[in-house]
Specification:
45% helix; alpha/beta; 7 strands; 5-stranded parallel β-sheet
């Protein structure tokens, strides 16, 4: 991936943030803070990294992704539309409307969505099963799962982590959106977890600790390393910014789930456009 490609993908992530904000404004609901923090992760995976497209969405050899932090659905819709799975205008017009299939959490009746999620802590256990099945089938497909850092308080995550190490699932890559905020405040106040790197290593995982999880370049390097890893699963700890892209939202717990006012919306979009123009100069 050359510098120009990375610059364009970085810009694309900010354009997709605007799409996600527009979806939220239309549906009058959404987890905007996490949408903004997870955007580069989704953009890198769907638009660059994974072997998945509308053309091969039923191919058993396609890569699989489980969006375990399923509440960040508006970002997911924006990226799925950019990847050609969905029509952005249709999503924006009908999101969260009565009878719509575009709901606030992943719906696997939609193309590109592998698993319904919502209850946190379920994604990694299912992804472990998918990866184990891939090993049993001698398949080359890879399995990715995106989790929130607040989600790591769920015990099922650590049971799955033990199993993934036990079976040497080097075809599995977990990604933690480490934005340090959850619905009830800072993660370190709710459930201390700043020893994440050591903790995952103690469970037998290879760890890629990404200092700037909103950097396409740094994420790209981490995912390349994960693909080369043999004998153990990889976790990418992506240290992101909740509400990334606008000072209106950044690092503010109140923006975990919030619909902007029209004045806030105008400022957020203006900020995102400015970041988009500056993107690539990382």
């Amino acid at each position: 991936m050359n510098d120009m490609d990375m610059d364009e993908l970085s810009k694309k992530a900010y354009a997709l943030r605007i799409d996600a904000v527009n979806i939220i404004m239309s549906g009058k609901t959404g987890h905007i803070g996490g949408d903004m923090s997870v955007m580069e992760i989704l953009t890198e995976l769907y638009l660059r990294r994974m072997n998945i497209s509308p053309a091969n969405r039923d191919d058993p050899e396609r890569d699989l992704l489980v969006m375990s932090k399923g509440h960040c659905m508006e970002a997911y819709y924006a990226v799925l539309a950019a990847a050609g799975f969905l029509d952005l205008k249709d999503v924006t017009a009908r999101y969260s409307k009565f009878g719509s299939e575009y709901i606030g959490h992943p719906n696997n009746r939609l193309p590109g969505v592998e698993m319904n999620t919502g209850a946190l802590g379920h994604g990694l256990p299912v992804a472990v099963g998918m990866a184990l099945a891939g090993k049993m089938d001698a398949s080359g497909r890879r399995v990715y799962v995106i989790m929130g850092d607040g989600e790591l308080a769920e015990g099922s995550v650590w049971e799955a982590a033990m199993a993934a190490s036990q079976y040497g699932l080097d075809n599995l890559c977990a990604v933690i959106d480490r934005n340090r905020l959850q619905i009830s405040g800072f993660t370190e106040d709710v459930m201390h977890q700043e020893v994440l790197t050591d903790r995952w290593r103690s469970f037998g995982w290879h760890v890629e600790d990404v200092a700037d999880g909103n950097s396409i370049r740094q994420l790209d390097a981490a995912f390349c390393a994960a693909e080369k890893m043999r004998g153990a699963p990889t976790v990418v700890i992506a240290r992101t910014v909740k509400g990334c892209g606008s000072a209106v939202m950044e690092n503010k717990a109140a923006w975990h789930h919030k619909v902007p006012t029209q004045e806030e919306y105008a400022q957020i979009v203006s900020d995102l456009r400015a970041r988009m123009e500056a993107a690539g100069n990382e």
